[in-house]
Amino acid sequence: MFTGIVSAIGRITQVTPQRVADQDAGLRLDIAVSNFLTPSTKLGDSIAIQGACMTVVALNPDSFSVDISRESLNLTCGLDAVGDVNLEHALCMGDSLDGHMVSGHVDGLGVVTHFAPIGESWDLRIKAPVSLAKYLAYKGSITVNGVSLTVNQVDDSPDGCEFRINLIPHTVEVTTLKHLQAGSSVNLEIDMIARYVERMVTVMPLSTT
To answer: Does residue 49 contact residue 66 with C-beta atoms inside 8 Å?
Structure first.
């Protein structure tokens, strides 16, 4: 579990193809980061990278490695090339839940339609696919590239919806969202509560008679 509050910006420094029995087995990512890994960080720990939960398979004082499967690569963006990434340690019991409940499982990809300063803040608009549109609501929560954000507006269309977010300068400064531009793809994770609500209202209970 995560909160969507980014702990650090790391950098993918090396991308190594993995093969098993001469079959494509995804990639190994080497990620450099300062002042993020703690004395308690160990092999097997979960770390969210651009909103996707990954397992630590190698560890050094200022870097770590993860293996990402081909299936995960096909369902995410920003994890297949050298570049900056948002990082977050897994939530521990007793930690402050400053964002919202995040699983680290990407539900789909969105596309940035607009990203520009507006006053002292930044106006971010993202087109979400039809499969995710119903989970987005005014003042609801959404995770974009691992960042917990609040939806300020939703405009529906036959092919999905465009939702709007107001970013404060601090969020832009301490996350990789600063690199977004119109046309950028982003990892989206819908609100976990919305997922369960939809399941409860759409599945009919089995008859007991």
So the answer is: yes
Residue 21: per-residue pLDDT: 81
Cβ atoms of 173 and 107 within 8 Å: the answer is no
Taking a C-beta distance cutoff of 8 angstroms, is the pair 88, 99 a contact? no
Domain termination site, one of 89, 120, 151: 89
- pLDDT above 90 covers what percent of the chain? 83
Q: Which domain holds residue 121?
A: 108-199
18 belongs to a structural domain? yes
Please check whether residue 56 is in contact with residue 42, taking contact to mean a CB–CB distance below 8 angstroms: yes
Q: For residue 119, give both structure tokens.
A: 């006053």
In this prediction, residue 116 has a pLDDT band, given cuts at 50, 70 and 90, of very high
pLDDT score recorded for residue 22: 79
Q: Work out the number of other CB atoms within 10 angstroms of the CB of residue 25.
A: 15
Helix, strand, coil tally for the chain in percent (to 5): 15, 45, 40
| Cα 136 from Cα 164, distance rounded (Å) | 10
Query: Is pLDDT of 161 > 60?
Result: yes
Query: Is the domain of 185 the same as that of 150?
Result: yes
- All residues at 6 or more sequence positions from 1 whose CB lies less than 8 Å from its CB, including other chains: 90, 91, 101, 102, 103, 104
Question: What's the pTM value of the predicted model, to 2 decimals?
Answer: 0.92
